């Protein structure tokens, strides 16, 4: 730049013979474009992990929702079984025990009242 030498503008190269004849700038720009494109691809493959992370995140959320759904189904099934057992076995047993106890309490009350 300020070194006092001659500078060649980007996209132009000096001719091999040392003259200042410009080379076809389309060929140079095209190859520069390909290099930039290749560098972009390399960068995206090596340093840009967003697509991979997004895919892994989607997979994790899907698996989590499936497992959560299965877990909720198991909880609901357990609750259904517990309610059925309570209605069929525990409540009748409690009812019978309560009737026996109440009849004993009524007998004691009548004995004390008289």
UniProtKB/TrEMBL annotation:
GO CC list: BLOC-1 complex; transport vesicle
Stretches that traverse the bilayer: none
Chain residue ranges for the region called Disordered: 1-27
Source taxon at top rank: Eukaryota
Family that this chain belongs to: Belongs to the BLOC1S5 family.
Name recorded for this polypeptide: Biogenesis of lysosome-related organelles complex 1 subunit 5
Gene that specifies this protein: BLOC1S5
């Amino acid at each position: 730049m300020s070194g006092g030498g001659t500078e060649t503008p980007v996209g132009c190269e000096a001719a091999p013979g040392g003259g200042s004849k410009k080379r076809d700038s389309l060929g140079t720009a095209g190859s520069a474009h390909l290099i930039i494109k290749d560098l972009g691809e390399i960068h995206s493959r090596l340093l840009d992990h967003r697509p991979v992370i997004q895919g892994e995140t989607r997979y994790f959320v899907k698996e989590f929702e499936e497992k959560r759904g299965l877990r909720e189904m198991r909880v609901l099934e357990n609750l259904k079984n517990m309610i059925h057992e309570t209605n069929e076995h525990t409540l009748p047993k409690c009812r019978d025990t309560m009737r026996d106890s109440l009849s004993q309490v009524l007998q004691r009350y009548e004995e004390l009242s008289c």
